Amino acid sequence: MEAANVMDSEAVQKPKVIYRCKKCRRIVASEESIVPHERGKGEQCFKWRKRSGEKEPTQCSSVFVEPLKWMQPVQEGYVEEKLQCMGCKARLGSFNWAGMQCNCGAWVNPAFQLHKNRLDECHM
Fold first, then answer.
1. Residues 108, 83, 70: CA angle, nearest 5 degrees
2. Which candidate, 43, 37, 31, 57, places its Cα nearest to that of 99?
3. What is the signed CA dihedral for 64, 42, 14, 110, rounded to 10 degrees?
4. Domain-by-domain residue ranges, the chain?
5. pTM beyond 0.85, yes or no
6. Which PANTHER family match (predicted)?
7. 69: burial class by Cβ within 10 Å (0-12, 13-18, 19+)?
8. Residue 74: CB partners within 8 Å, gap ≥ 6?
9. How far apart are CA 47 and CA 53, in angstroms?
10. By percentage, how much of the chain surpasses pLDDT 70?
11. Burial environment of residue 1 by CB neighbours within 10 A (0 to 12, 13 to 18, 19 or more)
């Protein structure tokens, strides 16, 4: 019985994070579907033309997730496409099976990218 209580207390202590569409508040991802990536070397990783000149490493402006059921273009077999909210059709991000580069410089492969400025991060 003590083992069950210990597991319950661990679940209570760790806050669950869900991501919602900012426009219609539909749940689009949860903490369990996030694909972590190691921070890249920042602007050093980008071509010269894509550099902004900032010296400070920036926070990642996107989250990368596993392919989810609501991602219609993924289900239809596209290799790369934009991702739209199923509720309001707002553009939430994009995906590419060949991979994408995060703004921190890291490459994520395959990449299902959701932009943080289009999402609300809710801690439960």
1. 100
2. 37
3. 20
4. 36-49+60-116
5. no
6. DUAL SPECIFICITY PROTEIN PHOSPHATASE 12 FAMILY MEMBER (PTHR45848), OS02G0251700 PROTEIN (PTHR45848:SF6)
7. exposed
8. 67, 68, 81, 95, 112
9. 12
10. 73
11. exposed
pLDDT given at position 85 = 95
Q: What is the DSSP string of the chain?
A: -HHHHHHHHHHHHS--EEEEETTT--EEEEGGGB-------GGGGS-GGG-----SPPPPSEEEB---TT-HHHHTT-SEEEEE-TTT--EEEEEETT-EE-TTS-EESSEEEEEGGGEEEEE-
Question: Which phi and psi angles does 52 have, rounded to 5°?
Answer: -100, -10
Question: How confident is the model at residue 48, as a pLDDT?
Answer: 47
Joined together, the tokens standing for residue 73 give 């273009």
* Tokens matching residue 23: 């426009």
Q: What confidence tens digit (pLDDT) does each residue in 27-83 have?
A: 999 999 999 988 766 555 555 455 555 555 568 889 999 999 999 999 899 999 999
- Residue 44 CA to residue 26 CA, distance in Å, equals 37
